[in-house]
Design brief:
Number of helices: 4
Order of helices and strands: HHHH
Distance between the termini: 13 Å
Structural class: mainly alpha
Low-confidence stretches: none
Shape: elongated
């Protein structure tokens, strides 16, 4: 999807910049009532729908 978006824009750098900016955002802490249900760390990777930002950026840079 990232490569497709870069292709639609005609340049890959805006997509790389957007991913880098999103990757730099610090997610908020879960509310205390929800912390027991939070999935973090390596276990969280099992439930992730997207690769880490670093991998997505690296893939775009190789295009």
């Amino acid at each position: 999807a990232d490569a497709g978006a870069a292709q639609l824009m005609g340049r890959k750098q805006p997509m790389i910049n957007a991913l880098a900016r999103l990757g730099g955002l610090v997610p908020g802490e879960l509310p205390k009532t929800m912390q027991a249900m939070g999935i973090t760390g390596n276990l969280g990777k099992l439930f992730s729908t997207h690769p880490p930002m670093e991998e997505r950026i690296a893939a775009l840079q190789q295009l």
